[in-house]
Amino acid sequence: MDKEFLEGVLDIKKILAIKESNGSISRYFQHMVLYPELQRVCGFDDQVLDQFLWGTRSWIAGASNFMPAEHVALSSACVEKEDFVLGRKLMKAMMPLIYLLENGGKYNQYLKYGASLAGIPIGGERATDRPVRCGELRIPQALRRPQGAGHRLLGALKEPQPVEDIR
């Protein structure tokens, strides 16, 4: 989103926020300084804690479909309670999953797999998507626990291994 675009949408009353997912935290900061009246929606999962700290109040997260309690807890801690110490603890617990999603090369496929393990019906794969094999998923034991909305997904995944960059 360049300067002309952002200045152009400032006068459109029905636009209240812009999804920020370019991956550059410095560009996010620049937008917050130059256009503070335009709210941002975090669209980059591994930057959500930083963006909450700087004033973002909403987040679009694919894994929230199968781990809603964890995502609501993080959002609530940061946005409603402004408890960034708790937010950091929650984010630290979620980072292995977020790292896999953001860097594993199969974001959409991992989300579909997670949703299916959580009992959510999913559609077929696109022809361009490579399928996910259970052996590719590596989530640390620390994320597995008996409570929480994502426990069935996390319980089905393997022990921690280095996540290979398969792009």
Strand sequence of the main sheet, in spatial order?
1-2-3
What fraction strand?
Answer: 5-15%
The count of helical stretches stands at 7
Rg over CA atoms:
17 Å
CATH class: Alpha Beta
The CATH H-level superfamily is Aldolase class I
Biggest sheet descriptor: 3 strands, parallel
Q: What pattern of helices and strands is seen along the backbone?
A: HEHEHEHHHH
Q: Keyphrases for this structure?
A:
three-stranded parallel sheet, mainly alpha, 7 helices, 167 residues, single chain, 43% helix, disordered C terminus, TIM Barrel
What report would you give on this structure?
The protein has 167 residues and is mostly helical. It has a single domain, classed as TIM Barrel, CATH 3.20.20. Helix content is 43%, strand content 6%. It has 7 helices and 3 strands, in the order αβαβαβαααα. The chain has a 3-stranded parallel β-sheet. β1, α2 and β2 form a beta-alpha-beta unit. α4 crosses α5. It is globular. The C terminus is likely disordered.
